[in-house]
Amino acid sequence: MGRKPEGQAEKMFKKVGKKIDELLADLKEAGANAEEEYAERIDELKRSGEKLKDEFSNFKDKHKDRIDDVEQNLKKAGEDLKNAFNSAFKKGE
Question: Model-level pTM greater than 0.85?
């Protein structure tokens, strides 16, 4: 099978990473004074992001069996829903 779909948490981590990158780009434009002013805040954001990522990873590891069960049940429900719609809206009827 291919790669699993990206979850909400992963999307959030990517979004936070993009925001940090945007902040860094803004700092380069603002100059050295602003860079010093925001350097501590950027480091704090990076540490917080890493902490959240670690906590989420630990949560996923701790609840792996339940997460796997939920994922399989959601896939089955999705297939059942797809089949119900296909059956209800068959072409040519």
Answer: no
